[in-house]
Amino acid sequence: MSTTPFPRVLVVGSGIAGLITALAAAGRGLDVVLLSKDRLDETNTVRAQGGIAAMTAGLPGGQARDSVALHVRDTLGAGAGTCDDDAVRVLVQDSAAAITALVQHGVAFDRAGGPGSPWVEGLEGAHSVPRILHAGGDATGREIQRALVAAALDAETSGRLDVLRHTMLVDLVTDHHGSVRGALVLDGDRLRELRADAVVLATGGAGQLYPHTTNPAVATGDGIAAALRAGAVVADLEFVQFHPTALAAPGCFLVSEAVRGEGAVLRDATGRRFLEDAHPLAELAPRDVVAREIVRRSLAQGGRPVLLDCTAMTAPAGAGHAGPDTAEHLARRFPTIDAAVRAHGVDWSREPVPVTPAAHYLMGGITTDDRGRTSVPGLYAVGECAATGVHGANRLASNSLLEGAVFGARTAEALAGDLRADDTRRPHSTRSQSAATAELRAEGTDRTRPGPPRAVRRHPARLAPGGVLALPDPAEADVPFDRQAFQAAMWAGAGVLRDGPGLEALVRRLDALRPPAALSRSAVEDRNLLTVGRAVAAAALHRTESRGAHFREDCPVPEPARAGRAFWRRSRVAPRNGHRPATSTYAHNDMFERISAC
């Protein structure tokens, strides 16, 4: 193992959250190293089609029909009573500054006319007014990624930012106090230790938990798994958002919410619209409602996919001339989707498109305050891998890019203040030991930072009655991990529709899996998927109600007494036979203890 020179801040992930954090931290004079697991543009951000929600009143190009209060109300409504209200207000209040920063980095949002004309603001599901900015029609994420990568490359060239490509997070390095002091990373086939004053996890979600996902192959929950092994508190992992309309074909290409926002409708195999009976907003209902109704209708018609009908869509006619026909409008407004659909042999201007729900976004993650701080000193998290509380039980469409931009900037600001205020975080007494090994030590103290996130302050770590998910001893976990079988089990037990017996069966099945021991990218990913999958199953089994994206057919209504967020961490309780591996980087005994819900 080699040891590199000491970087000040290590940012893991190159989507919007990681890039904004790295650029903003470098701009504040911090030494920053940016890690990308793959190419800089192999992210969920680049796949984001629908746009970025923002309150643009008062900005050049913005429109005055929206307000902070209205955007907050819509976000809280979609979150189904489980949002952190303060975090939501921060998200919306900082949205104008986030858009301004993106424009300064070179993002070109679509405008109604030439330069200086108003931005085009679209409408999406559960939004009460049009507030969604797009770029390149349905290529918003690609344009944001392009601009931010260009800015990062410029910073790299000028020496303001170091970038490590094709470098995967393996684990976090902790000192004898449990503070994070760096990371173990896999660079090709070489294991390296990177030391740092602070580590920022911006590793995205965990769509690869499921066989049907709109996420890229890199979305294997790496940051969440590493944080759990370091003792971090997580929350809301039962809330997995399934995008209702992915192309029912290999690759699950996402057909954006914006398509329904502009008039597309969903039909069953007989050609009948079925969402009008399910929700007052019909096709514009929250994603969890639409996804469930699609699954139910598909099951009712023998597993055949439902159909997204765009054949009546045309652009509005202008003064004195007709709007373009459907084919021209779809190609102009949704060029990326148009190309993908036609590549599968469907002329969506003339025939409906078969669609299916697919795992799209993880509302839960590593618990943070509104400046990225986690419950572990020296560890920050931002973006999809973090749980700020802004999404609650169901993310409002197009709030995810906004979250990455807003909290990336706030995390960079916190880093600058925290590190300069605490010179004791200079490197000393650092042990070249992974967090997974460090957590095996029997320590009676609660390893949380002074002034932890508000959620952690409210809920001092204590074992809740019945709150431990005790998995079997390593010797009992004798079924080799197979990713396809694991994903199929997750889909069946913790997919769009869930129930208690199915979740219990899933927990037992995951209990029996033995993670691979090799040191390779695929093996590390598999271990991370198993850790996060077990945590998702534990959280979903514990929440005996239906709320937002978490729907249980055995308890199909929300229970007001269970509306609060549930916080979890990896348990320090020993396995039943007391076995504690002394050298293994990855403990087999994933156990999670619940911290009381708020």
Per-chain topology:
Elements: E1 2-3, E2 9-12, H1 16-27, E3 32-35, E4 52-53, H2 68-78, H3 85-93, H4 95-104, E5 121-122, E6 132-133, H5 140-157, E7 162-164, E8 167-174, E9 180-187, E10 190-195, E11 198-201, H6 222-229, E12 234-235, E13 240-247, H7 257-261, E14 265-267, H8 287-300, E15 306-309, H9 326-333, H10 335-343, E16 353-362, E17 365-367, E18 379-381, E19 386-387, H11 400-421, H12 435-438, H13 454-458, E20 468-470, E21 479-480, H14 483-494, H15 500-511, E22 513-514, H16 521-542, E23 567-570, E24 591-595
Parallel strand pairs: 1-10, 2-3, 2-11, 3-7, 11-18, 17-19, 21-22
Antiparallel strand pairs: 4-6, 5-6, 8-9, 9-10, 12-17, 12-23, 13-16, 14-15, 15-16, 20-24, 23-24
Helix pairs in contact: 1-5, 1-11, 2-3, 4-11, 6-16, 9-10, 14-15, 14-16, 15-16
Pathway: Cofactor biosynthesis; NAD(+) biosynthesis; iminoaspartate from L-aspartate (oxidase route): step 1/1
Region (Disordered): 418-468
Main location: cytoplasm
Protein model, in words:
The protein has helices at 16-27, 68-78, 85-93, 95-104, 140-157, 222-229, 257-261, 287-300, 326-333, 335-343, 400-421, 435-438, 454-458, 483-494, 500-511, 521-542, and strands at 2-3, 9-12, 32-35, 52-53, 121-122, 132-133, 162-164, 167-174, 180-187, 190-195, 198-201, 234-235, 240-247, 265-267, 306-309, 353-362, 365-367, 379-381, 386-387, 468-470, 479-480, 513-514, 567-570, 591-595. By secondary structure, the chain is α/β, with parallel strands linked by helices. The two termini are 43 Å apart. Helix 2 (68-78) packs across helix 3 and helix 14 runs antiparallel to helix 15 (500-511). Among the domains are: 2-192 and 360-425, FAD/NAD(P)-binding domain (3-Layer(bba) Sandwich), CATH 3.50.50; 246-352, Succinate dehydrogenase/fumarate reductase flavoprotein, catalytic domain (Flavocytochrome C3, Chain A, domain 1, Alpha-Beta Complex), CATH 3.90.700. It is built from 16 helices and 24 strands. The strands form six sheets. The chain has a six-stranded mixed beta sheet with strand order 19-17-12-23-24-20, covered by helices on one side. The chain is 30% helix and 16% strand. The longest helix has 22 residues, at 400-421.
